[in-house]
Amino acid sequence: MTADRGADGVLDTGARLRSGFCSIVGRPNVGKSTLLNALIGVPLVITTPVPQTTRHAVRGVLHDDGVQVVFVDTPGLHKARTLLGDRLNEVARDALSDVDVLAFVVDGASGVGRGDEFVADLLAPHADRTIAVVNKIDRLGTAAQLPALDAVSRLGDWAEIVPVSAQSGDGVEIVRRLIVERMPEGPPYFPPDQITDQTIEHRIAERIREQAIIRMREDVPHSVAVLVDELLPGTSDDVTVVHATIFVERDSQKGIVIGRRGALLRDIGTDARPEIERLLGTRVYLELRVKLLKDWQGDPRALNRLGY
Ligand SMILES: Nc1nc2c(ncn2[C@@H]2O[C@H](COP(=O)(O)OP(=O)(O)O)[C@@H](O)[C@H]2O)c(=O)[nH]1
Ligand SMILES: [Mg+2]
Q1: Which residue intervals of the chain are DSSP H helices?
Q2: pLDDT of amino acid 15
């Protein structure tokens, strides 16, 4: 990851600055993306109840009084069943090396399981720079917290173990402070007004994908991918026209995403639009279409085209 540290000298104020990288890792659905949003205080990445929602190593930047932390949100580490799954694991594994701190997120409410042990084994060589974050404590009574912390402590020799609720914000400030403390001296990697390396097109596509997958059942969410085709100026200055395509893997899924008389597709657009308008700072005219990209999860060329 150090190879990407290309923005040296962006802000040469002469002051002694500290900066570094912190990867957020764990099995799927433990709350990694929710934690990233809480740590930087901006709803940067989508979070849903569907496992494997995150498909990229998204960087979210915390600017904190002379300290810059570049957080890397990662796909959940899991037993892959598809080529997409393999690539997601690869992305997450790559995020383990060359970072200053690792945040190992565990779902304290559902208990430690084999998925967590699998991740803990990968983290073992980095335990001394790993902060174990026991998440979802809002769903645990006080009495159940201690056993949860104990179970996580038995997974490895972690530098710290912190109970949090990424959703309510409880304990997040403690995690933020522990991470900020560990940042070495270094130049800022991003200008002060930039909070991510994601393009605007990608962020828009993610908002559409979020709205699509929360409406789908079973395996359909995993079959959905979204690309923004183009952003065009509208008829007036305060309107942007967004053309985007929702890809599915099987012909039968087209109808599922479109819904009866297009009702579902309309709902996806209606609910994604406010967030897209906030991102663009204009009103938005959203034109969505649904296309079949047959078996894309197992097709290297299709995966490349979709950016995975
Ligand atoms: N009760 C509770 N739910 C949470 C918390 N953090 C995340 N979640 C939920 O857990 C699910 C997965 O969260 P997400 O951040 O997408 O997990 P990821 O797959 O690890 O990135 C979502 O439905 C979140 O709303 C928490 O602190 N408490
Ligand atoms: Mg995620």
Answers
A1: 32-40, 83-94, 114-123, 142-153, 172-181, 200-213, 220-223, 251-258, 263-280, 300-306
A2: 62
Q: Which of 283, 291, 290 is nearest to 241 (CA)?
A: 283
The segments of the chain whose pLDDT lies below 70 read: 1-15
Same domain, 154 and 231: no
**d(C-alpha 190, C-alpha 97), whole Å:** 20
Burial 227-255 (b: 16+ CB within 10 A, else e): bbeebeeeeeeeebebebbbbbbeeebee
Structure token pair of residue 233: 């100026």
Query: Which residue among 25, 35, 37, 47 has the greatest number of ligand 1 atoms within 8 angstroms of its CB, and so is best to mutate?
Result: 47
Residue 188 lies in a domain: no
pLDDT digits (tens, 9 = 90+) for 241-290: 999 999 999 999 999 999 999 999 999 999 999 999 999 999 999 999 99
Are residues 42 and 164 part of one domain? yes
Tell me, in angstroms, the distance from the centre of ligand 1 to residue 144's CA.
Answer: 19
DSSP lists the bridge partners of residue 284 as: 240
Domain containing residue 72? 2-181
pTM exceeds cut of 0.85: yes
Which protein residues are within 6 Å of ligand 1, measured from CB?
A: 26, 28-34, 47-49, 53-54, 76, 135-136, 138-139, 165-167
| 187, part of any domain | no
CA–CA separation, 35 and 58 (whole Å): 13
Quick one: DSSP state of residue 45?
S
CA 146/CA 152 separation, integer angstroms: 10
Which CATH number does the domain housing residue 78 bear? 3.40.50.300
